[in-house]
Design brief:
With 636 residues, the chain is an alpha+beta fold. Among the domains are: 24-85 and 581-631, no CATH class; 94-116 and 327-461, Aminopeptidase (3-Layer(aba) Sandwich); 162-200 and 210-229 and 252-285, Gyrase A, domain 2 (2-Layer Sandwich). 34% of the residues lie in helices and 19% in strands. The chain is built from 19 helices and 22 strands. Strands 1, 2, 3, 4, 19, 20, 21 and 22 form an 8-stranded mixed β-sheet that branches. Strands 12-13-14-15-16-5-17-18 form an 8-stranded mixed β-sheet, sandwiched between helices. Strands 6-7-11-10 form a 4-stranded antiparallel β-sheet. A hairpin with a 2-residue loop joins strand 10 and strand 11 (280-285). Helix 4 packs across helix 6 (152-178). The longest helix has 27 residues, at 152-178. InterPro entries: Acyl_CoA_acyltransferase, Arg-tRNA-P_Trfase_1_euk, N-end_Aminoacyl_Trfase, N-end_Aminoacyl_Trfase_C, N-end_Aminoacyl_Trfase_N.
């Protein structure tokens, strides 16, 4: 029953005769390449590839629902049983989305930023700068000496600085998560910064006298990360060159060093020197010792002093009152996929700063091939509740703050879903968690556009790789579903997770039906039926450093077309059969069924071609193989 329902859903959009265009693909066969997820040294990533000359949105929707994705015009589907990192398509029904506490916090943070309340932090950091660079501080210092620590507003300013520095550390933690340096998908502690008193500074060793603020967040992070890793697996074992070592997570010293490295920009703008010392994150003044005989105060400045500062190019205005909030304007624009120099510059900066790519690796050609080129045939709005106002096709969703481009989401809008392909953002705005915020906006877009196109119900997040910890964030958009790699049925993530904890490749639909029909306990015997040789002794558990969702795959990679067909299962119920004679063939400008031209081939050529056609039908399905056009290439 489930299978027939799935087929009905899959074919519902493809029968729309009002949409023009056709799908034409060339078969690249089985491709091997290095893996961008586990970073294995060999060609362990195994996929089947198609080069798409054109693809209708209906056909691409159905391909997604069979585990395919695209990178530019290259379509690929992992060989789930043989590839090093099995990749499961993950989706969410937008109307069922239940945001987590952290996701709600991201929305509130953005709203506070737009309302202007975050600007107070920017005002505060101005007051931390070296006083020798501005006459403002000289005036401020004299006022501070008069008010001393009895001034309540002075204490408030001090607290603002501590909160600001704490927020900057939290942003650095998020940046380390994005870079894959810290484990994602868990609740990490918030930073707390404390001021080092004058009395304590006098007791410090030589060279530490100018220490102003310190934080022990690295110790808290280390404890949390270690607990998470031990809870995930009693003791996480990582295979390294055939040896098993215990992974207990990063030490406080390593964490503090990573955070200090991520706070370089703050050091440049605030006049502070930021260093890691024995696991502590310390903030030092750039001032000479002679200026440090007194505590650093953030006191009240009179209106006259404020005017003096302003007239001399100072940094403080109206500081006798709470700084006036500066509101920001956010614009979200949806545009058809095309090359935009401004977008490319943002992408280049993102790849270099966040993913540590070398500048010569981030080229306009590779960017176009990866994120601009698209084979999808655009479908304009129809006005009849079958197409959204923007149409169907490939789009770039731009996020602008005060007319500055800060993020771009690369998406495909299809008959049943918005498929998220990639996002790149301005590292200066990491504190806004733009990756999470854009996902929330895309989910909201799906819900809003259901009134224009009722079939548009799902948000696809790409591939989910359970052995890749940086992928875990995708399952945080609850309740999500994973696609069964054999029967192409959707299985709730909550059912799939314990199975994937034990094996990287699982026929998920087997256990979905077992759980529906009997108890939620899955026996060892049933698990043992499924490919005991898969994932044993390899390096799938090694955490990747970068998360290139839809990693660029080269269609010219080493081909395995002569290998025997190994796609099997201990339970073959539900595997489709089809007749290759009905495959639509393109050759020399014609469109014919294979059965109408098979006699033109000699025995050897015919045997080779039919072997290729059978593999093609197996990976795209009988229905799509009879609907899409197969470009023969060198055969005619």
């Amino acid at each position: 029953m489930k299978k027939s329902k799935m087929r009905s859903e899959a074919s519902s959009s493809s029968n729309n005769s009002n949409r023009k265009g056709e799908t034409v693909v060339g078969d690249c066969g089985t491709c091997r390449s290095s893996c961008g997820y586990c970073k294995s040294s060999g060609r362990t990533s195994i996929t089947h590839g198609l080069w798409a000359y054109s693809v209708t949105v209906d056909d691409y929707q159905d391909l997604l629902d069979r585990g395919w994705r695209r990178s530019g015009s290259f379509l690929y589907k992992p060989d789930m049983e043989r590839t090093c990192c099995p990749s499961y398509t993950i989706r969410l029904r937008a109307s069922d989305f239940a945001p987590s506490k952290e996701q709600r916090r991201v929305s509130r943070r953005m709203q506070r930023f737009l309302d202007g309340t975050v600007d107070v932090e920017k005002k505060s950091v101005e007051l931390i700068k070296d006083p020798s660079t501005s006459n403002c501080n000289k005036v401020s210092s004299s006022v501070e000496n008069n008010s001393l620590s009895h001034n309540n507003e002075e204490n408030n300013k001090e607290e603002e600085i501590l909160q600001f520095l704490s927020g900057q550390i939290d942003n650095a933690v998020q940046l380390c998560i994005v870079r894959g340096q810290f484990l994602s998908g868990i609740q990490l502690p918030k930073a707390s910064v404390k001021k080092v008193s004058q009395a304590k500074r006098k007791l410090l060793v030589e060279g530490m006298e100018n220490l102003l603020y310190t934080s022990n967040i690295a110790f808290q992070l280390a404890a949390t990360l270690n607990r998470a890793q031990l809870a995930e697996k009693d003791v996480q074992q990582i295979r390294v060159f055939g040896q098993s070592i215990e992974d207990t997570g990063p030490s406080p010293k390593i964490i503090a060093a990573k955070l200090a490295s991520s706070l370089i920009q703050l050091a440049e703008t605030s006049g502070l020197s930021i260093r890691a010392c024995n696991g502590h994150l310390n903030f030092y003044s750039a001032m000479k010792q002679a200026s440090l005989d007194e505590d650093v105060h953030i006191g009240t400045v009179s209106k006259e002093s404020a005017k003096t500062c302003e007239s001399k190019g100072g940094c403080l205005k109206n500081s006798s009152e709470h700084p006036q909030a500066k509101r920001h304007k956010l614009q979200i624009r949806l545009k058809r996929s095309s090359f935009d120099p401004q977008e490319f510059e943002l992408y280049r900066r993102y790849q270099i700063k966040v993913h540590n790519d070398k500048p010569d690796q981030v080229t306009e050609t590779s960017y176009r091939r990866f994120l601009v080129d698209s084979p999808l045939v655009f479908v304009p709005p129809s006005g009849d509740d079958t197409v959204p106002p923007c149409g169907f096709g490939s789009f770039h969703q731009q996020y602008l703050i005060d007319d500055r481009l800060v993020a771009v989401g690369v998406i495909d809008i299809l008959p049943r879903c918005l498929s998220s392909k990639y996002l790149f953002w301005d590292p200066d705005y990491a504190f806004l968690s733009l990756g999470k915020y854009s996902a929330l906006q895309e989910i909201s877009w799906v819900k809003e556009n259901q009134t224009h196109c009722p079939t548009l119900q799902y948000y696809y997040l790409g591939y989910y790789i359970h052995s890749c910890r940086k992928m875990r964030y995708k399952a945080a958009y609850h309740p999500s579903e994973l696609l069964c790699p054999l029967r192409y049925q959707w299985v709730p993530y909550d059912i799939a997770r314990p199975l994937l904890d034990r094996k990287p490749y699982v026929v998920l639909s087997d256990f979905a039906s077992l759980q529906n029909e009997s108890s939620p306990c899955i026996s060892e015997n049933v698990m043992g039926c499924q490919h005991d040789d898969i994932g044993q002794g390899d390096s799938n558990d090694v955490r990747m450093d970068y998360d290139y969702d839809d990693e660029m795959l080269d269609p010219e990679s080493e081909s395995d077309d002569d290998e025997p067909d190994t796609e099997t299962s201990c339970q073959t119920v539900g595997v489709e059969d089809g007749d290759i004679s009905n495959i639509v063939i393109r050759g020399q400008g014609t469109r014919v069924r294979y059965k109408d031209i098979q006699r033109v081939f000699g025995p050897i050529q015919r045997r080779s071609l039919e072997s290729q056609l059978r593999k093609y039908m197996k990976v795209v399905g009988a229905e799509l193989s009879e609907r899409m056009v197969y470009a023969l290439g060198s055969y005619l």
